[in-house]
Amino acid sequence: MQISKIRIGSRGSRLAIIQAQEVKAKLVAAHGLDPVAIDIVTIVTTGDRIKDRNLSEIGGKGLFTKEIEDALLSGAIDMAVHSMKDLPAHVPEGLIIAGILPREDPRDAFLSPVAGSIAELPSKALIGSSSVRRIAQVKRRRTDLTFTGFRGNVDTRLKKLKAGEVDATLLACAGLKRLGLQNEITSAIGIDEMLPALAQGAIGVEIRADDIVQAELVHSIGDERSAIAVACERAFLQELEGSCKTPIAGHAHVENGRIRFRGETLTPDGIRVFTAEREGATDDAVWLGKDAGREVKRKGGHLVL
Question: Which of 34, 52, 86, 269 is catalytic?
Fold first, then answer.
């Protein structure tokens, strides 16, 4: 395939660049492209600029994607690479997610120099996190812990943890593994113990809906099982119209043409949780996610939303 130039839009963090480089490497391998023909264009987002406030206070998930999507819509870039958990529930008109790469470990990671797990933390221990989901889930398990906001990239948070600013923090296993920092993980929190963010661990490639050339390029590097699972999880998110302001979690597992999904939303204090589970054919993944969302709302999830 003759390609003169492909411009991949990405945030400028080390993790975001690694993810964009993974997309580039897969495109090169799949299509025999010249690496020189693929540029990674870094774009500073509002979420990257504002570091002194929690995302839930200033607008939520779209703060890490809006400027990148604007560049895509304007033609300044040809495709955008996102951590799918950062994407708002609805993609802007004129754009589509053309492919999902093979998903990395979706679990949350517990990191602490003083305990091996959340259960082992001493009473009044201080946890650093700006995730309303993680805070609510931990509060549900431990009412005796304390919390403080914790913004910054992975390296910044690890430095704060090692400096003793907090007793523990929680990060995504996927990001730590992609950064080669898996040895920093004290313990991985099982899916059955604590549901992760929807689409956590998945990298998505977004393009203009009418760009046939990019669609063909991206389709060949996508992973079908990962795409089906993410589609189910995002359907749950869309039904609940969730954002970074809402404690929402869920995970879908795809195997042998079947999909199993479990999702939940919690009150911010963790006292109340509303859950739903679904299982069915992968062809019904989106419907199953939406139907689980409807059940959560019927049970009382509207109190959170």
Answer: 86
